[in-house]
Structures are given as C-alpha cells and as structure tokens.
Design goal:
alpha+beta; 9-stranded antiparallel beta sheet; 8-stranded antiparallel β-barrel; 34% helix; 23 strands; Methane Monooxygenase Hydroxylase, Chain G, domain 1; Beta-lactamase
C-alpha cells in the first residue's frame, strides 16, 4: 500500500508539472546571499514615494530559477501603518506583457505540431485577405509575433484595446480587410495587431478561443490559479486601478478601464505577484513544464533587429514576445506594459538567472518600476547601485514633472445641464462600423459614452467639447445631428 501511495503521488506530481511555487526557503536563501538588499531597497522606494508625494500602489518582486525570492509593497496606507489589501495576491493588469505569453502559446502549439510559425497567414487564415491588396502568403505567423508583418488597422486596434466590439473575430477581420495600412519593408514596427491576429490563427487551428488556450497551455500547467484573461473572473474593486494625478488636485480620475471584450492577445491578462513569479521562473529556468530546451532557446532568441532606446535599455532585437535588450553590459529580456496610469515591468537576465516584476499605478510615475528594477539589479550584481540610481533618477524626475504639469479640465469647465444643451443628447452611429456614441444626462452633468468607455463632458477652448474617458481624452464637435471626433463622422 505504501508503494502504491508513492506511485500515485508521483503520477499526480508529473501530471501537474513542476511549476515553481512561493517558497519561504528561497526567500531565506536570497536574504542570506544579499543581507542588506531589503533595507536598502525599501528605504530607496519610500524616499522617492514621499519626495514626489505619490499616490497609488507600488508592487515589486525579485525572482530566480526557483521562484519568488523577495517581494515588497508600498502605498499611502502602508506608509501610515494602516491596514492595506495590497499584497502578493493582489490582482494587477500586465497590459502588453501579455505579448510574451501569446508568443509562448504559439510556440507551444508549434511544438505540438498544431501549426508551423514559418507557414503563411494565407494558409491558416485565408479569410483575412486585406481586400486582395496584400500578398498574405508572404506573411509568416512568426512575422505576426515579432512585429515585421507590416500591417496596421486603427479601427481594429481601438476596438480591441479601448472601445469594445460585438461581432467577434469576423468583425475584426472585416476591419482589417477594409481599414488598414501596410509597410512592405519587413522592418520591425511595434503594434497590437500581429499578436491579436496570431491569436485568431490559434483559434482557427484548434477550435478553441485564445483565452481557453492560455488557460489550458500556460496558466494551468504553471499552477497560476489567480491569473485570467477575463476581468469578470475577479472582484472588480480588487483589481488595482489606473490613477490620473496632478500635484495641484491630487487624484482626478480613478478606474480600471478594461472589460472582458477588451482583454486580448496583445494586452489581456490580470495576474498576481505570486502567479507571475511562477511564469518568470519558468522562463529563467527554461523548465520542461511548457516547452523543451530547443523551443525555449528559439523563444528567447532574437528573430528580428531593432535599434531603440527606452529609458536606460538599449533594445537590439525582438524574439516572439520579448524585447532583447542590454543593461549595464548584461543581456536582458524585457516586456513592459502600460494603460493610463498603470505601468508594468517584467524582465530577466538569463546569464544571471534573476528577474524582476514591478508595478505602479500613479500615472506620473510610469518610469518608477523600471528605475527600481535597475536599482535591484545593480544591488544584486554588486555594482555601485546608489551612484547609478542618482544618475538615472534625473530621467525619472523629468518624466514625472512633465506628467505632473499636464492640465486637465476642472468642474468650472463642465457642460452645464440646461434645455439648450439637451439638444446634444442621443445616440450617434458611424457608417464605418465604429462603436456607437451615446450622450445622456446624469444628475448635473452630461456623459459621453463611446463603446465601453464613458466620461463627463466639458467645454473646450476650440468651441467644442472634451471628455476624459480614463484611458484617453476625446475632443468632439456637434452640429445639428452630426458629431465629429477626429476624422470620424457620426449621425444621430
């Protein structure tokens, strides 16, 4: 019986994989190896948080091949010694870091012989034909993942990222076929379009949604039990929101501006530090839960060139979902993300077997996760961390001040409710299949609804109107029954 029990236990372990769980022993080893790290890091974050009068949350973790090694959380409640719900199980939106998950998913499907990343878009998704203006047989699935496919669609991008849509993949393919730009050069051009189309390819080849495939092939094998591609899987108020903040007025907008329909293959995952540490550890260790050694190597190798600088990182290439970069003469794989005030950082140094996860949601401090990731790397790698931090903080200061000085409409500019202004109310439709716009009253103000987004209406200096929709502000004019916003024309 004892042998039978052990055999069953081994089978269960094998079936569940070998994902890295949160380990107190690993944290203890990190502390023993870096005894002053915790104090130095905490002091540095608290100093800058207080200096800048920040709002919102800062969440941070160090991960190695064995999983979570160190974590830290900070917000105003924690600074005051008050109770806070912020911890390693707090749901956070990872935005464009989703692209590395989607690239991994497609690589898994290739390893399972479901598809070939070198095969063409025409072979796998023939109904996407760009009105026969683009030779899609020359666009490989790999080109979709590494941003060298050359195609772009404003309507598809806005619907999936911000506004929502109701017609499924068929509606998005119609947008791509009829509203697109094309660069045939094959050069790297970053956008959401390629990974979203690759998600459609995965759905076409498996008969399952991208969301179901993510759960089946990544979240479940890594035991990421608090990770999802659906907002509705979480208690909404628990998801850390975007904050729009100014030094004069404090928090002027607060909200999480995503719904299930706008959670997509380029920006559609909510997770936690505990779960993300399992994902990052799997990449650092290249364990065989998700992929074999050959597939991991190809997944982490540059497939196209880029020559760009972001903050302190020089990016030289892009794999199937990761930027290939360098920092302090160390190779890094990074995949950052942002939405309104949310800034998310995930990276690792493959040669050092260490990685960082960082999150903040004060819009002025979008460089904070990167600044503190660098400080942590420099402490771990025994570089002059404080001197480097002092130099890099000047870049942070400039960006913070620039964001802090952005003017936003105040209540004195709000469009007053009266009989004359009631004429703008109604539902407006666009002939090119953009989501409807609805204007209605709520108490003493008017509301501009565009797709799933909404915001109060203000007068602007151009004789028209402005509405802050959380993830974006939109100017519009109304004349009679016609509403124009940018180049889009709507009719009541």
């Amino acid at each position: 019986m004892r042998l039978l029990f052990l055999l069953i236990l081994l089978l269960i372990t094998y079936a569940c994989g070998t994902s890295k769980d949160v380990s107190p022993e690993n944290a203890s080893k990190f502390k023993e190896k870096h005894p002053s790290f915790s104090t130095q890091f905490a002091n540095k974050v608290e100093d800058i948080y207080l200096e800048k009068g920040m709002y919102g949350d800062f969440i941070f973790a160090v991960v190695d091949e064995n999983g979570l090694a160190y974590s830290f959380t900070l917000n105003r409640e924690i600074l005051k010694g008050e109770e806070s719900s912020l911890d390693n199980d707090t749901p956070i939106y990872i935005a464009s870091s989703t692209k590395s998950f989607t690239g991994t998913l497609l690589k898994i499907l290739e390893q399972e012989n479901v598809l070939d990343l070198n095969n063409s878009l025409q072979e796998y998704l023939p109904k996407l034909n760009y009105s026969d203006s683009i030779e899609t047989q020359n666009i490989a699935i790999k080109n979709l993942l590494n941003h060298t496919h050359g195609t772009f669609s404003t309507s598809m991008t806005w619907k999936t990222a911000f506004l929502g849509f109701s017609g499924g993949n068929d509606e998005l393919i119609e947008d791509l076929n009829n509203d697109f730009l094309y660069d045939p050069s094959g050069n790297y051009r970053y956008s959401n379009v390629g990974p979203i189309i690759s998600g459609m390819v995965a759905e076409e080849m498996t008969g399952k949604t991208w969301k179901a495939l993510m759960n089946e092939h990544i979240f479940t094998p890594l035991q990421m039990e608090n990770t999802s591609t659906n907002v509705s899987d979480f208690i909404f108020k628990d998801i850390r929101p975007s904050l729009t903040v100014t030094k004069e007025r404090g928090i002027i907008e607060k909200g999480f501006y995503k719904s299930d329909i706008t959670m997509h293959a380029s920006g559609g995952i909510i997770s936690t530090i505990n779960d993300l540490s399992k994902w990052l550890a799997a990449n650092i260790d290249q364990d065989n839960v998700l992929l074999n050694d050959t597939s991991w190597g190809k997944l982490h190798t540059s497939t196209t060139n880029q020559d760009k600088n972001y903050f302190t990182y020089h990016r030289s290439g892009y794999s199937l979902g990761w930027d290939i970069a360098e920092y302090q003469n160390n190779k890094m794989l990074t995949r950052f993300g942002g939405l309104a005030g949310i800034s998310f950082h995930i990276s690792f140094m493959p040669d050092k077997k260490v990685g960082i996860i960082a999150f903040s949601n004060d819009n002025r401090a979008y460089l904070l996760p990167h600044l503190m990731a660098n400080y942590a790397y420099n402490l771990i790698n025994e570089l002059p961390a404080d001197n480097i931090f002092k130099s890099e903080k000047t870049l942070f200061n400039k960006s913070f001040e620039r964001e802090d000085d952005i003017p936003y409409p105040d209540d004195s500019q709000i469009l007053a409710v009266n009989t004359l202004n009631d004429a703008i109310m109604g539902t407006y439709h666009n002939a090119e299949n953009w989501p409807t716009i609805e204007i209605h009253k709520e108490g003493d103000h008017y509301v501009f609804n565009w797709g799933i987004l909404k915001g109060k209406i203000f007068r602007n200096d151009q004789g028209g109107y402005t509405s802050n929709l959380g993830v974006l502000s939109r100017n519009f004019h109304i004349k009679g029954n016609s509403l124009s916003t940018g180049s889009l024309i709507y009719k009541k």
